[in-house]
Design a protein that fits this description.
single chain; alpha+beta; Arc Repressor Mutant, subunit A; Alpha-Beta Plaits; 2 domains; 4-stranded antiparallel β-sheet; 5 helices; 37% helix
């Protein structure tokens, strides 16, 4: 990956709808060369996809919570992977992370309010028989939340 590829990734993180012509102009390439570079970045998996970033508050999903999940020790790794896949499939779940330590997963969810969060925990998480316990932390205020990666840092 050269400096032009890094600049392309940086620009697309800022504006995923940037036209090929504008992108080519910003990186000083021809539009056809730009199309080829972006296609190669996609093929290599550096660009995973494109999407609109929605305002959760405008969609009445203002409650953000992190749920620490502990599963029964008696279940094998295969069962843990099934639990992870099941958690990933829940519509309210935004992220699922495997953890080292006492808890097995850290799950990020969005809900309308505390009643909706209760429903998520009871109905959605409650369907997993191997979940031994959950600890929920509700976010009061978010100062920074971004999907942008700072990959051009000094090493």
């Amino acid at each position: 990956m050269d400096e032009k590829d890094e600049r392309i990734l940086e620009l697309l993180q800022q504006d995923g709808r940037m036209t090929n012509v504008d992108l080519a102009r910003a990186v000083e390439l021809t539009p056809s060369a730009m199309l080829e570079r972006v296609r190669k970045l996609e093929e290599r998996g550096l660009i995973k996809g494109y999407m609109a970033l929605l305002d959760p508050h405008a969609l009445e999903l203002g409650l953000l919570a992190f749920i620490f999940v502990r599963v029964d020790d008696e279940y094998a790794l295969e069962q843990s992977e099934r639990t992870s896949a099941g958690l990933c499939a829940l519509p309210s779940v935004l992220e699922v992370h495997h953890l080292a330590g006492e808890d097995c997963f850290l799950v990020k969810v969005r809900a309308r309010d505390t009643d909706d969060l209760y429903r998520i925990l009871k109905e959605e998480f409650g369907q997993f028989k191997n979940i031994r316990s959950t600890r929920t932390t509700i976010v009061l205020k978010t100062d920074k939340e971004t999907p942008r990666l700072a990959f051009r840092r000094e090493r």
